[in-house]
Design a protein that fits this description.
With 291 residues, the protein is of the alpha/beta class. It is built from twelve helices and eight strands. The mean pLDDT is 90.
Length: 291
């Protein structure tokens, strides 16, 4: 699963994929995970590493070849195909929408925010493309558009935000810059996710936060300083993110703090992401200030 690789690792994957596609003499437009590798983007699903994914308009254009998996999109247009490094590849927009039929809403939001973060397209460009085109999974893709939030720094951060939101935590500020406190070198202190008016924040702690000594010390300094300023800071790990009970507990702990500070107990219904995307819900009316 191509979720937490560094930019250097993504660059290596891109170079290797280009070389392998040329060696395999792939002539049809590349799509899916293969296209994402060529674009140097992470993606929130597991791929078969030795498989090349290509897109054709209909089954008559399929060619049997080892390690090549052909997908069909009858609405494929010439403008959906770009050329990079001598290879044909679906445009970033076409790559994303043709994956919609196999991805759930969470994965689609994670992929969308990653592709915007990697400057493969802007959100308005992709939203316009999505509304105009016909493809499998369009209902989920439209829900993903409503759940998009600018500024996500990683796919794990996106997943954590959505898991908290669907458990009743209000709309969060991403990469919040804490006012009036800094590291000793003058750099601003930020939180991955925050409810500034409640002084509640969440930090996703990847493995490098534990194994990198400098990062570990920075995290400890930030945590101690934030708590001295009356912030409640939750450290979240990958194990928390994959465990529904732990996610429930994180949301409940936040609800207790919100109730203590406002005198109002927030609703803690657990919604599906399709339900969360419904803009008529109270969630969208009580969004955090500053978002």
């Amino acid at each position: 699963m191509n979720m937490t690789r560094t930019q250097a690792q993504l660059n290596d994957v891109r170079a290797r994929t280009i070389r392998q596609c040329k060696e395999a003499h792939i002539t049809q437009p590349l799509c899916g995970a293969t296209a994402l590798k060529l674009y140097g983007s992470e993606f929130p699903f597991t791929d078969e590493p030795d498989t090349f994914h290509v897109m054709v308009r209909d089954t008559s254009h399929r060619r049997r070849a080892p390690h090549v998996k052909a997908h069909t999109w009858k609405q494929l247009e010439p403008t959906d195909i770009l050329y990079t490094e001598g290879l044909q590849v679906l445009s970033p927009e076409a790559t994303a929408v043709t994956l919609a039929g196999t991805l759930n809403i969470m994965q689609q939001v994670m992929l969308l925010e990653a592709m915007v973060r990697n400057q493969l397209f802007t959100f308005p460009m992709f939203a316009d493309y999505t509304h105009k085109r016909t493809f499998h999974g369009k209902k989920r893709a439209l829900a993903a558009l409503k759940l998009y939030q600018d500024g996500s720094a990683s796919m794990t951060e996106t997943a954590l935000r959505l898991e908290l939101n669907r458990r009743g935590v209000p709309r969060l500020v991403l990469n919040y810059v804490v006012p009036s406190i800094w590291y000793p070198n003058g750099a601003p202190i930020t939180f991955d996710l925050a409810l500034p008016e409640m002084k509640i924040a969440w930090e996703y702690q990847g493995d490098h936060h534990r194994t990198d000594k400098a990062q570990y010390r920075r995290d400890a300094y930030k945590g101690n300083l934030a708590r001295s300023k009356n912030w409640t800071l939750f450290d979240v790990t990958y194990d928390d993110l994959r465990n529904q009970q732990r996610l429930n507990e994180l949301a409940l702990q936040a609800a207790v703090i919100i109730a203590q500070r406002t005198g109002t107990v927030p609703r803690m219904d657990i919604l599906t992401l399709q339900q969360l995307a419904d803009r008529r819900r109270v969630f969208w009316k009580r969004s955090s200030s500053g978002t």
